[in-house]
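@channel sequence for tomorrow's demo:
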Amino acid sequence: MRFLLALLTLLPLAGAAGHAALRNPNARFWRKHAPAQYRVRVETSRGAFVLEVHRDRAPIGADRFYNLVRAGFYDDSRFYRVTARFAQFGIPGNPAVAAVWRTPTLPDDPVRESNTRGRFAFAMTGPNARTTQIYISKTDMTSQDKDGFAPLGMVVEGMDVVDQLYAGYGENAGGGMRGGKQDRIFAEGNKHLDGDFPKLDKLIRARVK
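structure tokens (generated this afternoon):
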């Protein structure tokens, strides 16, 4: 009975990980526009939180995030970069999927909202370099505004869960986008993170509400 329950719990994750569009960033699936407003429930090993997106604030980013969530892209991954200032996620636990999405970038959205506590945006290394990685501001990060980090929306439920995500590893587990220090995450996925940074919190699944 316990085995059956565990299997049933994993089935949604297995199905999401096998979504055909995850292996083809040029598929028609990715051209669907997001609703004008939508919410995403993120289930984690600490509990759940809810993100609310307003498409008019960052339409290009809002569309990609919506479609990534629809495809189950973030399911069974890790919060690999958590500091006192922010919590970051967005590299798949499956290295084969991670490799596909490491380079397809997005044009920038204009910054229409400030990076205040609770807002979230795509991480990037420079102009027009957004991919799949998301950070949630845990404190005032309005200094990001001038560098083009355009928030998609904000946490509307469960900010206390975000605050509790394990931050003991700081930048050591997943920092260094610009310096290429995420190579092992892309190459080995959850195997590397769970083995070398076992206290990282898990992103179990994300679903559009």
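heads up for whoever presents: Residues 14 and 95 are 15 Å apart (CA to CA).
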